[in-house]
Amino acid sequence: MRMSKSAPAQRPAHDHRRCVERAVAAAERVCTARQFKLTPIRKRVLEIVWRQHEPIGAYEILAELAKDGGKPAPQTVYRALEFLQQAGLVHRLDTLNAFLGCDRPEDTHSGQFLVCSRCRRVAEIEDSVLNRTLRERARALGFRLDASPVEIKAICAQCAIPG
Amino acid sequence: MRMSKSAPAQRPAHDHRRCVERAVAAAERVCTARQFKLTPIRKRVLEIVWRQHEPIGAYEILAELAKDGGKPAPQTVYRALEFLQQAGLVHRLDTLNAFLGCDRPEDTHSGQFLVCSRCRRVAEIEDSVLNRTLRERARALGFRLDASPVEIKAICAQCAIPG
DNA sequence: GCTTTTGCGCTATGATATAACGTTTTAGGA
DNA sequence: TCCTAAAACGTTATATCATAGCGCAAAAGC
Prior knowledge:
homodimer; two-stranded antiparallel ribbon; 15% strand
């Protein structure tokens, strides 16, 4: 029986300065409106998440934070991430044990993400019908959806190419 | 800002001897048919997973295995689980870092599971339309679904009751 | 200004998962 | 049957991800 393992992803870096700016601005709006406190650390973590603009692990964030000079502990990152999640500013992807900035923090949507099992690439499905169907099916079983994204493991086009 | 934490689940134990028997029989059929080797350890792990008949963590399985007398290492469990997953006999739920026996190992379906964020209760959605929709949406973005279950975080009826 | 809550630094530890290597078992061909 | 290669497994060590618990400081509410 064949038991192949997956390979890690490697993609070219990319300057997401604009994304960071936009995300931080949105975060400030959201936090002001809802009286959440976007402290310097939280803002910094959000920036790091968006600068990456790909799923990023807590300890990667920690490493980035450390470059600022301090000696932050995991707690620092996890606390900031907990806040950001609850404020709807970042999503946690359980599949990858990683975090991703939320595009539209203003509306409480629960997106669907395709996650490549091989390279960890992520794509978001934007489909209101799918969303509604999920909500209805959940409802029929007595469940109420929350804002967590639905993760769908799949193989992406690049990885599907034999090799 | 309110930041509430989730509470663990607690449900009455339940004798799943029948489920175990059925699951093991199915596993033996599948493995015979596809020439997979259902070794004693693998079978034992499958039994433990089914005896629980709820998502069970790798280290819980390890503890159960240890009761048999040996001193198994995590590897033992993870290797067995890897086999069982690839054989389609158990699912891994990333949301819970836990494993669950697959009801219908004979057909390669990718089920959808509702997972309660509060109590970890799990319910399976059986919906071919949903399944097809997911597959199509994935396809449109160049992704091909694999056999991994889709996990949908939600709040179950019991946990939704205020209190 | 006092109290309560919230945020955060810090140390430690828990929980989950894998690497690496050697030995044993199994399957299948010479 | 014996040999060989692959697969399964034991064992030790370590990597990775996440939380507990405590004390201090800053901020919010009275």
